[in-house]
Design goal:
It contains 4 helices and no strands. It has 141 residues and is mainly alpha-helical. It binds fe (ii) ion.
Length: 141
């Protein structure tokens, strides 16, 4: 199923919202390719994109959490590390075994989990906190 970024997911920082939207786009491109029988080609592109994306995006998001003293920062950071390791594991499989059906399916499951559980639940908690926080994010101008 294709997924769409929704306004309620906004964390109140334009750059992070832009990064989240980009991840939704990349997932949708992968989903379309998968159903068009081109999942193996697209999964290579997806993993190429994710490596750089994760480094920048997680650092930006963690920096926002620190700026606003987000109380669940440690647990959130652990989840980022977990996602980073899962992607690294799949990349290793891709490198060793190529983009077989199992790998493409695992990549799809990882991405839906990321978008649905992580962004829609955990990142959304940051969004709610930022909106209610007495500490104004000075970098969001
Ligand atoms: Fe996050």
């Amino acid at each position: 199923m294709k997924v769409e970024w929704q306004e309620y997911l906004s964390v109140g920082v334009e750059e992070i919202d832009r990064q989240h939207k980009l991840l939704f786009e990349k997932y949708n491109a992968f989903f379309t390719a998968y159903h068009g029988g081109r999942g193996d080609e697209e999964v290579i592109r997806l993993f190429g994109f994710l490596e750089e994306y994760m480094a920048t995006h997680f650092a930006d998001e963690e920096s926002l959490q620190k700026r606003v003293c987000f109380p669940d920062y440690q647990r959130h950071r652990e989840k980022h590390l977990e996602l980073t390791c899962k992607v690294a594991e799949l990349k290793e499989r891709l490198y060793n075994e190529g983009p077989d059906h199992n790998l493409v399916t695992s990549a799809g499951l990882l991405m839906t989990g990321w978008l649905i559980e992580h962004i829609s639940v955990m990142d959304h908690a940051i969004a709610r906190y930022v909106k209610a926080s007495p500490i104004q994010d000075q970098h969001n101008t």
